[in-house]
Amino acid sequence: MDEYMNEDLREKPNHAHYPICRGRMGDIESNSHKIFFFTLFACVIMAFLSILCIPMHVVGWIPMIFNSEEISKGAFHVSLGFGFAQVLSCAAIGVIAALNMGKRKVCGVILLIIYFMLLLSSLLASLTGFDVVTAMISFMGLYYCREAIKDKRDYEQLSKTEGFPLFNVILAEYDDNKNYQPYLKTKYGTDYFNKMTQNNSAPAAPLHEPPKNSYDPDNGLGDMPELDTVSVSGTNAARGRFSPRSGKEGAISFSPLKLK
User: Fold this and answer.
1) Which of 4, 79, 175, 212 has the smallest number of Cβ neighbours within 10 A?
2) Burial degree of 76 (CB within 10 A; 0-12, 13-18, 19+)
3) Quick one: average pLDDT of 46-54?
C-alpha cells in the first residue's frame, strides 16, 4: 500500500506537511465540484431527451432489459414509461455526483466508468441520431473525471494524515500548547488577566464632600461649593425691569396695526 502513497502528503514534524496537504485538499474539492456541475448539466439534457421518448445509451439500459423481448422481435416502441425510467437513471447519476463532493470519492471513479461506457456504446452501437449528443457528453465527462482515481487515492491518504481535514497550523499549535500549564497560566490564565487589568485600569476620581452649612437659598445656586460666587456682585443689577445707563426706563409698545 505504501508504494501508492503520495510522498508529498506524508506527515512531517512541526506540521510542515500542512500547507501542501491543504492545497491538495483544495484541488480535490475543486475537481469534485466541477464534476458535479457538469454531471448535473448533462443529466438535465439527457432527462429532457428522455421526456421526448428518445432512447439513449447507458441511461436506457435498465428499461431496455425489461423490453428485451420486444427488441429481439424488432417491435420495440419507446413509451412514456421507458422515458420516465431514463429520467430516473439520470437522477441516479446526479445523486452519485453529489455524493462525490463528500467523503465518498469512489463515486468519482464510478462516474468515470459511466462516461467511458457511454462513449464506447455511443461510438460502437447506433440507436438514434442523438448518439452524437451522448458521445459529446461522455467525452466531456471523461475530461472532468480524468483525475478521479488519483483524487480518491490521495483523499484516502489525507483522511489518515494528521490535521485532516482543515490542516490549520494555528489550530494545531493551540492543540500542542493547551496542555502546557505554565504557558497558559502566563499568557491566558489569571496572571495574564490580572496584569492586563492593572495596566488598563484608570485611577479613581477623588470625591469632594461639600462643607457643612454651605447652602444659601438667596444666591439660587444651591449646594454647589465648588463654584466661586464671592466675587459676584448684584448691586448694579435692576430687579424686575430693564434699566438702561441713561436712567430712563424702557418699555415695549405694541402697534395697533396688524401686518398681513
Assistant:
1) 212
2) middle
3) 90
